Amino acid sequence: MKLYQFDLAPSSNRVAIFLKETGIKVPTVQLNVRDGDQFKEPYNSLNPFHCVPFLELDNEIVISESVAICRFLEEINNASIKLFGTTSQERAIIEMWNRRLEIDGYLPLMNGIRNKYERYKGKVLSGTRNDLPQFPEIAEWGVESCRILFQRLNTHLRITTNVAGNTLSIADITGYEVVQRAISIEMNFDEFEEVKAWHEKLDRRFNSDE
Ligand SMILES: N[C@@H](CCC(=O)N[C@@H](CS)C(=O)NCC(=O)O)C(=O)O
Is the pLDDT of residue 210 over 80? Predict the structure, then answer.
């Protein structure tokens, strides 16, 4: 089994945090997606989505999508730390928050970033190179969508320590990366104090050397 990652990529970071939190070890290969390694053989043929992260199994099956990879690794390792929940209710709540954070925060901000910044010209869509023009207004739409999400999350975090209850879950990792993206584009979210405090707590935890 081999995990293909690029340490500077947010999606790879989600898997890296998951591995650190669960203690699961997987042999890892770095692909520099900024230099286009994903379009070179054998990676080009291995993963038709041309993105990191992706996991190559020993039976040659390839799994992409950060959350699918984490879920698979948690299941096959029977890890004692469960970031996808243990009961039906926990699993549903985690899935609910994870999807809201991706759909209302992560994707709108990423689409905005790709449509606004010079370095993404010709790379508006992840995993392909084409001459689709950038539409910078999408960045405004993204920030607005994320602001509404942060409002809801802020209220929710008044009654819970982590997003999907009092235990850390994959939804916290997704949410952490949403806030990281918001910070990278200098989005002002000072008014959402609970979101800020929760992100700071996660930032210390995820970046500690333990
Ligand atoms: N939804 C996917 C997103 C994967 C993705 O977009 N990966 C980016 C890095 S964060 C990538 O590899 N991009 C390559 C490119 O833009 O060509 C996931 O969560 O794994």
Answer: no
* Distance separating alpha carbons of residues 120 and 18, to the nearest angstrom: 27
Closest CA to ligand 1's atom 11: 51
- 104 and 71 part of one domain: no
Residues 42 and 68 in one domain: yes
CA quadruple 27, 60, 82, 151: dihedral sign: positive
CATH number at 60 reads 3.40.30.10
Substitution candidate for ligand 1 out of 52, 70, 132 with most atoms within 8 A of CB: 52
- What pTM did the predictor assign? 0.97
Q: 31 and 116 share a domain?
A: no
* Residue numbers of the domain that contains 36: 2-77
> How does pLDDT run across 34-62, given as a tens digit for each residue?
999 999 999 999 999 999 999 999 999 99
Which ligand 1 atom minimizes the distance to the CA of 53? 20
Is-contact 120 114, C-beta < 8 A? yes
Which of 51, 77, 103 is a domain's end point? 77
Torsion, CA 69, CA 116, CA 43, CA 53, rounded to 10: -20
